[in-house]
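Hi R.,

Here's the input for the iron/sulfur cluster complex you asked about:
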Amino acid sequence: MKAPVLDLECCILCEICIELAPHAFQVNGAGFIETLVLDDYSDENIHEAIKNCPKNYITWE
Ligand code: SF4
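And here is the predicted structure with iron/sulfur cluster in place:
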């Protein structure tokens, strides 16, 4: 199963990914975006979030 991975060093914390897929992304205690652990990352909202990251910092791994 592929999962979305963020480039934390480059992320500008715009939170668009969280707006589009709050079940998959959140701000962690350190103030960085993190991917939540899900059984399935195939839903359309997650694909939209990845597509709409303004810097293309979310990739599949
Ligand atoms: S959409 Fe991209 S740049 Fe914006 S918070 Fe999410 S990972 Fe960071």
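One thing worth noting: The two ends are 9 Å apart (CA to CA).

Cheers,
M.
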